[in-house]
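Late entry, written up from scratch paper. The run itself happened at the end of the previous shift, but nothing got recorded in the book at the time, so transcribing now.
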Amino acid sequence: MTLKIKKILVPYDATASSRKALKQIFSLFEKQNSEIILFTCIRDKATFGFFKTKSDKQHIQHEKEHAQKFHDSAKKEANAFGLELSSKIVKSDLESKSIIEYAKKANVDVIVMSKSKPLTHAERVYYNSTVDAVFKKTPCLFLYVP
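Output as recorded:
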């Protein structure tokens, strides 16, 4: 039995570990003829008022531009491996929810993630990491890249 993976979702959070995961995916799926979707969530900060301040909007725009530069660079690198890479940048207040919703909507076959830093004991007890939250509710296969 052969497992055909057509769509791979790779959440990218601008960390070294997410870049490392992406490079490993390029080599792992080089001969699969799969579509890789690079997915970035930009944190939409909660405000106490009914409007975003000018600095909030500038911060979001700056984050979008930074993410887009990396996405463009990753597309070139994917092409060198003969892979198709598309990208999606969204504003989100909860990254794990956005990742899961997009994976369902786009009929993704596998989500590939890595943790950006080791969690301390207190963080493991009190905070769910995005990776853990996605793993628990993933609608498809989940691949963790250490």
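Helices lie at 16-28, 54-80, 95-105, 121-126, 130-137.
(Scratch paper discarded after transcription.)
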